[in-house]
Amino acid sequence: MYALSSVRITAVMVGYLTLPAGALAQPLPSPSSPPAIAVQQTEGTVKHIDPSSNTLTLADGTEFIVPERLMTGARNDLTPGIPVKVSFQQEGGRKVVTQFEIVR
After folding, report:
1. Which CATH number fits domain 40-102: 2.40.100.10, 3.40.190.10, 2.60.120.20, 2.40.50.320?
2. What one-character DSSP code corresponds to residue 22?
3. Spatial contact of 48 and 57, defined as CB atoms under 8 Å apart
4. In a 3-state reduction of DSSP, which class is residue 74?
5. 68 phi/psi in degrees, rounded to 5
6. For the chain, domain boundaries
7. Cβ distance 45 to 82 under 8 Å?
8. Across 1-104, where does the E strand assignment appear?
9. What is the pTM of this model?
10. What is the pLDDT of residue 33?
11. Predicted pLDDT at 72
């Protein structure tokens, strides 16, 4: 009986050791799907808009980078004193606008 038990244990261990390395590994997330970046929102009143540096500053001092594609359409709409709702993402320590809406 002792000999039979050691044969079974040996067979199980040999089977375990001969499995391919990936057979027991957990699947990794796909590198093609980057982690989601959180979009944040705030509301405020426009204090200053600088088309040359693509920046928008609210009355509370919060400064945003406005991508050129948004700045082009916003030059006539964003003026000091206008209340806005700004959606943005943090990128490298800067707040980058993803969307804005003039609050009426």
Report:
1. 2.40.50.320
2. G
3. yes
4. helix
5. -55, -40
6. 40-102
7. yes
8. 40-50, 55-58, 63-65, 83-91, 94-102
9. 0.63
10. 54
11. 81
